[in-house]
Design goal:
It is a single chain. By secondary structure, the protein is an alpha+beta fold. A hairpin with a 2-residue loop joins strand 9 (about 290-295) and strand 10 (about 295-305). It is about 35% helix and about 20% strand. It has helices at about 25, 55-65, 70-75, 85-100, 115-120, 130-135, 140-155, 220-235, 255-260, 275-285, 365-375, 375-385, 400-425, 430-440, 465-480, 490-500, 500-505; strands at about 30-35, 35-40, 50, 165-175, 195-205, 210-215, 245, 265-270, 290-295, 295-305, 315-320, 325-330, 340-345, 350-360, 440-450, 450-455.
Length: about 525
């Protein structure tokens, strides 16, 4: 046997592979020099802490109101893989993400290590952003919309026994990709940018969303809102219909008004300033039959029939005198720059701004004018949903998931608004105020001797006010739980709604329908 030749020169040191840092090395403290002296920083990824430390109060609201469990149980999502997340994990992750103020699926990563609230919701884990997108993709659109519409209806159905007003409006959501339905349409903020159109229906003065439909950006006209509007009313019992429908000039068309007259539901819309409308204003300006309509406005009514209308309709012309110092903004056609100019009005001349309303209501002019001024709150709903909730994001390539997420965000928005009203029933708090006040705080969970405690450390300057508001909610729930065995889930929800909107109801208690026993 021939032996291998022995090396003449040494081969040197063998290449060393870097060792993986041990768990102790990962969690060792780091010395950091600060203006307050040297501090030692260390990580504890296994600690049961959460940045949403005050969420347990909201979770109790969902449990006692029987809102979250039926939403999960009736979800049409069916995942058969043994490694797939449960419906509770998927919907619980969506709930936590929307409540945290996220506007993208990728933001879910920031709550993946929440070791407190996922367990309080009965979840096994918080799923990833990819799992959320894939799960929503597997829900059939028609079935998913019916599921979400049912739970939206559960939020507001008891309130429909009280006289209410239906606000209908559209808003634009700008897109920056090649999504389905991303079409250039009416977009006053960023003209030429593709967008989606959100057709929304809400209860006036309560900021509760009835339904929302997402359509391509060029489908913002009232003719695209009308089918869903009439379908919404057809799903309601006739005695629960609103006092009237209210909308802007996009809805003052023959198609919408004739359909409302056919269904015998009153309406109040604004008219566009067409030539015939301007002629009517010129005619009324010459007389002195103007009535005071509140807040500096004057009004006068007339009958008007425009081209394409089947009959004459009642219109209310409103005018308001503007100050003599007028500032005009115009765009230079060459430089595309905004130019500002000051206009001086002759001391003997009077300058007015005007609005023309069309209605089938029989109220006096001042009441109708105030009704339309109250419609300004509808714009606040859009501002809150788009800028403070998830309507500005959660966009995917297909239109189906955008439609589902629009309703999911609207549902969670309704839940949170009603919970906040339990804490502060005298006014509406937008999310930019209510989240830091009633949600954001560091919560640490400790379990000892079979008892779980959550210690809350809030950095809010009004921590004493926060404790008073949440104590109010907890006290109400304790009183309700003491008689919970005598009430059905529907009766409990009526009690909660009566407390949340007690200012709107003026002390009236909502009464659930009487269920007769089944015949023997």
């Amino acid at each position: 046997m021939k032996l291998p030749p022995s090396p003449i020169h040494q081969s040197g040191e063998l290449p060393t592979t870097p060792k993986k840092p041990s768990l102790l090395a990962k969690n060792r403290s780091l010395a950091v020099d600060t203006f307050g002296g040297r501090v030692h920083v260390e990580w504890d990824p296994q600690a049961a802490v959460t940045p949403l430390g005050q969420l347990p109060f909201f979770i109790e609201f969902l449990k006692i109101g029987d809102l979250f469990d039926p939403w999960v149980d009736e979800c049409p999502l069916q995942l058969i893989s043994p490694n797939a997340p449960t419906n509770r994990d998927v919907l619980g992750t969506l709930l936590l993400s929307v409540l945290a103020g996220h506007t993208r699926y990728s933001h879910v990563t920031t709550i993946r290590c929440d070791g407190v609230n996922s367990g309080l919701l009965g979840m096994n884990k918080i799923v990833s952003e990819d799992s959320l997108r894939r799960a929503l993709l597997k829900i059939e659109e028609d079935v998913g919309i019916l599921w979400l519409q049912k739970h939206l209806n559960k939020c507001y159905a008891p309130l429909l026994d009280v006289p209410w007003i239906l606000d209908v409006d559209t808003t634009i959501k700008v897109l920056y990709g090649k999504q389905e339905g991303a079409v250039v349409g009416y977009n006053p903020k960023k003209p030429g940018r593709p967008s989606h159109t959100y057709h929304t229906y809400s209860i006036a003065n309560l900021r509760l969303v009835l339904d929302a439909e997402v359509q391509p950006g060029n489908q913002s006209a009232a003719s695209y809102s009308a089918p869903d509007l009439w379908a919404l009313l057809d799903r309601m019992p006739r005695n629960n219909w609103p006092q009237f429908i209210r909308g802007d000039c996009a809805f003052g068309t023959e198609g919408v008004m004739s359909k409302a007259e056919e269904k015998e539901i009153p309406y109040l819309f604004k008219l566009k300033s067409t030539n015939n409308v301007k002629r009517l204003i010129e005619k009324l300006m010459m007389n002195q039959e103007w009535e005071f309509s509140g807040q500096g406005w004057e009004g006068q009514e007339a009958q008007l029939k425009l081209m394409g209308w089947k009959k004459e309709r009642r219109v209310i012309v409103l005018r308001k005198q503007v100050s003599k110092d007028v500032v005009a903004l115009s765009e230079n056609t060459n430089t595309k720059q905004i130019e500002l100019s000051f206009a001086e009005v002759n001391g003997k001349a009077r300058v007015y701004e005007y609005a023309v309303l069309i209605t089938s209501l029989q109220d006096e002019i001042m009441t109708i004018a105030q009704h339309y001024r109250d419609r300004a709150d509808c714009e606040n709903i859009f501002d809150e949903l788009k800028n403070q909730w998830g309507w500005g994001g959660f966009t995917t390539q297909d239109l189906k998931r955008c439609r589902l997420m629009a309703r999911v965000v609207g549902l969670i928005y309704n839940w949170w608004n009603l919970f906040v009203r339990l804490a502060k029933p005298d006014k509406h708090l937008e999310a930019i105020t209510s989240r830091p006040l009633l949600l954001h705080a560091v919560g640490k969970q400790v379990t000892h001797a079979g008892q779980t405690r959550i210690s809350i450390s809030s950095t809010h300057g009004k921590i004493n006010k926060v404790q008073l508001l949440l104590n109010r909610v907890a006290t109400f729930f304790n009183e309700l739980k003491s008689i919970a065995e005598q009430l059905t889930s529907e009766q409990r929800w009526y009690r909660i709604l009566s407390k949340a909107v007690e200012k709107y109801l003026q002390g009236r208690l909502l009464q659930p329908p009487i269920c007769l026993p089944a015949p023997v």
